[in-house]
Amino acid sequence: EDDAAVNSKILSLRARFMEKYGKILKTEWTGNRTIFYEFEKEVDNIILGSIKISIIGFGGVGKTTLTRLICGKDVDLEYIPTITADIAEYGGDEIGRTLTLWDFAGQAQFRSLWRSLLEGTDITLLVTDSTFENINGSKEIIHDILDKYFQEKLVIGIANKQDLPNRLTPEFCEKILSSEKRIIRTHGMISIEPMYREKILAIIKEAIKEIPEKKKKGVNND
Known about the structure:
Keywords: GTP-binding, Nucleotide-binding
Order of helices and strands: HHEHEEHEHEHEHH
Mean pLDDT: 83
Protein name: GTP-binding protein
Strand content: 5-15%
InterPro entries: P-loop_NTPase, Small_GTP-bd, Small_GTPase_ARF, Small_GTPase_ARF/SAR
Pfam family, one: Arf
Distance between the termini: 17 Å
Number of domains: 2
Low-confidence stretches: 216-222
Number of helices: 8
GO molecular function: GTP binding; GTPase activity
CATH architecture of the largest domain: 3-Layer(aba) Sandwich
Largest sheet: 6 strands, mixed
């Protein structure tokens, strides 16, 4: 990055540090440095930026429900189609980084926007409803968009609705979605069940470790 960008981030870090610890340093600090450990997350967010997660898939597969699960919000069981894209931010301590979640509208009339909305994505969650028809159709998303324009992006499959009787196993979904070009690790999910929140957060936390360092630092080589 150029000097101006670096200086701007340094000033932001200083301001945030003084906002958080200025009063403590002046009046209460006893020399215990462990109180500053939690500031590491602030450093990552300012220097590296938030993690953009794009949640894509056809309509009705549970993308919005998954977004709400990640954010720890109550799940609305009534299906309300997303228009274009909804954006949510989550900065919980479980992850250690701020997440910016892009929930893409899955209806046919909005799919032409997916390519532009995917720009700058760090992690893509491809959500399916675990039926053969939907999994097979989702291969078109991989072939027509992800493999064609975003070959280097990290894509994770979410085999949602594993509570339904006609669901395919995550392992079988992974075999259908993957190809010689790209292995799409696929995880089973029931996004309407709060107990699955720990699992999806663990999946995201592990995925963040796989983001190439140059992407973490915001270097765009696309």
